[in-house]
Sequence to fold (402 residues):
Amino acid sequence: MRLGLVSFTARGRALGEHLVDGFSQSNKAELILWDKSQISLKAFVADHFRSLDGLVFIGAIGIAVRLTAPYLESKAQDPAVVVLDEGGRYVIPILSGHLGGANHLARDIGRLIGAEPVITTSTDVHGIFAVDTWSQRQGCEILEIDRIKNISGALLDGQPVGLVSDFEIGGKLPEGLTPAVSGLVGICVSISEQKQPFEATLHIVPKCVTLGIGCRRGTDFEDLERFIIETLAEKDISLKAVSALHSIDLKKEEPCLLQFSETYGIPFKTFSAGELMAVQGIFERSAFVESITGVDNVCERSAMAADQGDQLGSGTEFVLVSDTEFDLVSDTELSLVSDTELSLVSDTEFNLGTDPDLNLGTDISGVNAGGAVAKSRRLIITKRQKSGMTLAAAIEDWRCEF
Fold:
């Protein structure tokens, strides 16, 4: 987390230095201090309001309000803004308490300096489940920000809120949430945006899908964008569910891939041919592609390749953990440049959690040399190709934890 820190007096600066030391020791945040000899306060706020995760003011709330007001957009985009008094007695989140993390930041600061967090959001005051805080903690995307109030309002009024999840549910459901298939108000946790189980449905999309992409050099961005969006739509997978874009390192400077990553805010990672070939599993093979790239299948292996955050190394071993049955042929697919190749997997049925209609493909889990078990991954889209582009998608074994 990167935070801007603003103080106005010697006492405020001393408190700010305490925060800098505390956050540095805990590695929780990097603080960027306002230096009035280098930049005006208005310019500092204008420059950093969008680029930082939050702003911390040590002084009067009114100053923080007036300085940040011109840049406010929505709770989905605004950063956390927290205000401390110079005495260090109170710490008050005034903007983006849940989605922006201001409430959590205020509590962290309170523990660090012994200040009392002044939390005013209704769900926190009454100890009610806050769906936006939970979603952020789970690494999910809320599609309808304006419907958060429907969920919170129902819970505050003592009305039941339904829950539909395509994923396994872990832990005890918060008070007021109940498994349901229909109703007035509810939450739908799914990688699909199309399900509408409730009259007012709040869709929460876990970021658990990885795309593996291959393309010819010089592929137009618009063609790639259309190919990805249309393929995901065909499989009823939300683009919001995509957590990463993977490819071979030969494509690390490919303009269309870099532009797609930047446009949609999806991290782009590449892997060497050796790393991709070390990914074990059942993949459609192309001898021609292997002769050019050193990898027999770029998109499927890229989709299944472990992110840096996963505890998988070069010594990773993958094992099949389910009795998946593979159809050798459904639709014959033509390779980019050569012979007709057969698709190993077509409409294989799979179950992601509680929804029997979702298809999850091959289930593979990894154990690294140190014995740490990584999240299992499953191919949910096997190799698709069009006009020199190939795409595959994998999903991790995500759980709906409470």
User: Anything to note?
Assistant: Residues 10-26 form the longest helix (17 residues). The first strand starts at residue 2 and ends at 7. The radius of gyration is 24 Å.
